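Notes to self, anthranilate N-benzoyltransferase:
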Amino acid sequence: MCKENGKQATNPTTTIKVKITKKTNVQPKNKIGKKETQLVTFDLPYLGFFYNQKLLIYKGNGSDYEEMVAKLKDGLSKVLEEFHQLAGKLARDDDGVFKIVYDDDMDGVEVLEAYVDLDGKEDDGDEEHDGGMVVSAEELASKEISFMRDLIPYNGILNLEGIHRPLLAVQLTKLRDGLAMGCAFNHAVLDGTSTWHFMSSWADICSGASLISIPPFLDRTKARSTRVSLNIPDAPPQLESVVAPPLRERLFKFSETAIEKIKTSLNSTKSGDKVPFSTFQALSTHIWRAITAARGLKPEEPTVFTIFVDCRKRVSPPVPESYFGNLIQAVFTGTAAGMVTGNPPEFSADMIQAAIRSHDAAAIEKRNKEFEGNPFIFQYKDAGMNCVAVGSSPRFKVYDVDFGFGKPERVRSGTNNRFDGMVYLYPGKDGGKSIDVEISLDAKAMEELEKNKEFLLDSDIV
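result:
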């Protein structure tokens, strides 16, 4: 586990309060009958994780909140005809094999409507209360994610609960000049690539497209056909009840200039025909070294770097980019903390590059067979000692998700699945090669990181 032995990031910062005004369920617009899809080896490790949360904050550009909500619901009903798995539930067959089951009589996707309650008072019964009108999209975009926790549904809900809950929940919170869209996806059903494929398809439909330009590839058995019987405990696995020191979350906005500086400096150490370090490898090295130093670890203490690698092009044979599901695996590398901080950056970069490049079809097959031979439900403690774990990707075009009322002001991950050392990468809103880096750390380590000028370069901190 990452230093705090399995604890999610918690923050004493006051959270914004919301009032839910309406809950509805959205189903595919037309009946499509009963559908079943087996979860495969790539999906199963995430059953013990929490729902994966995303928050998109929009200015309405003059659009009326009620009209925006109606458009979003209508578009959702249409896009669910192709992405019907998100409107289903998890189930297990008689052999203990998990699957996604959809039928037309199921509830579908849960949609919540809400407003911001600045006073935090009990509901006074005033149905016309318009608390959300005093909070702007720009104001929210500058806040820490812990402050915005209640703008996203399903906080602290495990993916295993998808047996009883919708696999997707959406909360639409009214703002003065737009809305906040909080989404909670069951991570046993899809990964980041599939999440943003769905979101961009939904946005295209809302913006007037009659068809989804790239339909999802729904046959998971093309990636892995092995049936895995997975035993689950009588009660879902829970995080340990021991109170961990508070963690802090920060967003570091690295400009294109800073990213180029990090990458160019690192690649200046390469000679001959050696493969250059990618932007991801260079930035990952920059982050791993800085966090290791900020933690103040003893030279002999271990540190682990974890990457969630997209395997769509790595499996044999490859599957389409539009494959819908999880097709990622965690890849690990590690050494003593003193080796990371005491050597030049290229030492750590070589380790990261080697770990990524070695994760080929044979390595993927080996990992799958190991899991299938001894299947179990992963928890955070499996991430590694004093780890830095990187999720999401700056390749995801999150700021192109326009539902017809403009691009988002800010895109963030929610508070679920955050722990000491968890990092999320997103493209910067300014475009180009800028990258937003979300980091959760022990409060003391975060304080040290924020003072590290060599790490910060010219980045802004949210």
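- The two ends are 26 Å apart (CA to CA).
- The CA atoms of residues 170 and 399 lie 18 Å apart.
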